[in-house]
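Researcher: For the record, we're logging two predictions in this thread. I'll number them. Prediction 1 follows.
Model: Prediction 1, sequence and structure:
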Amino acid sequence: MGKRGFFHFAVLFLFFSLTPPIPAQVPGAVLSDSAEPDDITPIWRQALGGSVMGLPAVQAESAVVVLDSGSIKAFSTRGYPLWTYSARGRLSPYVTRSREGTCYIARTTGVLIAVNRAGRELWRVNTGSPLSGEVISGWDGRIFVPTGKTISCYTGAGRRLWQRSLESPISLHPVLDKRGGILMILENKELLRIDPFGRMNSFSLGEVPLAVLSVSASGKTNSSGGTDGGESSERLLMVYKNGGLETSGSAGEGLRKLPSLPSPPLAVVCRLNQGGGGPERRPAAALFH
């Protein structure tokens, strides 16, 4: 088995090994006779009534998928159908879930819709343009919505807080930083960061990276881009398709190369540690190559 095959096997095995035992009475679910990890056989199957348009949004013990029928469906990790919501129109292939379980989806006409954890619509607003990437759920309930050459911020109740125009379309979809704002890469190779209140700053890169992460580094940044020990500071980590790595300060200062990965990365995974709240939540990253 090659590296790529082993990586997919490891991910699937981890998912199935952490999933609780599946009861045989799951309505509508077709269970496999064997759950041997070397088979990589699905534990259960469900008819969806349409084609899945994008990655599912998994949270706690449930998952939500967007279908080409203009609806989203929620299932428990045990295979139980939980609810179905119809948007009465074509959907963009993105679904985001907040910490409270609210789903954010959008019709291709630009109508942004919030659906609660029971499958009921909470509100909808017209953003004016279709989504250009998934909605990003912020730390305090606000959401960041990328559409074309704009980025907008809404409260969890659907009230727009601000909107900013971009000089170039988004190349790398926004991600949260450790300060509660967002990072994104534009097609003009500009790394742009926007804080929760809409303040923007940017700097240029030599090429568009595969991923950009906001990480913590112990100590203060010195003139060479390293750290001198002491309190934690924010650093940006850029990961490139050829395995190259670069790091810089939060505003692009001290940009320097790091030793490259031995092979091109297959995936970059970033999660936020659930610390005391707000800016204390620190991202942790893992590179697979």
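Researcher: Logged. Prediction 2.
Model: Prediction 2, sequence and structure:
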Amino acid sequence: MTENRIDRAALKRNLRRAYRSNPAAGVADFLAREIDRRMQERLDYVRLAPQWILDLGCGSGHSLSALQARYPEAALLGVDAEASLLPDANATTSFYLAADAEQLPLSANRFDLVWANLLLPWLSDPMAMLREAMRVLKPGGLLMFSALGPYTLRELRAGFDDGHAHTQTFIDLHDLGDLLLATGFSDPVADMEMLTLTYASLDALIAELRAAGVTCAMQNRRKSLAGRGLRQKLEAHYESLRASRADGRLPVSVEIVYAHAWKGDSDERGQKTEKQMISVVPLRMGKAERSR
């Protein structure tokens, strides 16, 4: 089945095009940077003094800069499957490696913290990434990541009825919890929040998705240009959403999932119980306005 498979060549094309259009920033990553900031805030409540930090899907290295400021004594390694996104190693104190997060060329039990901001929607097999994170973490090490939940871009998906994928496949919070436990992580905690981005026009929304390199890269996406009729249906759908809003703008829902879990250490954290439950923090609502 190809419904849930990523077209990796298409994904790389999207990212390279986005980078070429905005090389100074890498991608138009307003949302990724905001989510990264909120992830960083969660570290305020974690007792951790890492010696080695691994950032999976590091892109242009924004997360590593903030992590280095927080943990100045740590050595940091950024990994991304798309080499063109990686910064110049001579211009940073971090190390970088072009590699696949689902099959890391790294030794086991090496890192104290594995970080992954919004990587999961771009993986065909998130479970493989979690296994690799478990493998390279030291006992007692922490995995912290963010993902997008299934309500993300729901307005866009609802505007199509052609049987093709028009967004990535997004994983439910509780399914992520199950994956963490199945991989062997201990004490998983997850929470989510809903953001609403708004746009002045459909063209502005589509342009921002393209600029960020996050247009659909699923195998079963439409590979030919959409006809005029499909575009008109999509516009009519969004105009009906605009009419229902007091601000007269087009809404885009984003469901953000934050999660962390530990690689068990029998000496410090105790033996795993026969049955574990994922702890879910209550949902928070948010709103972000975009002047596009």
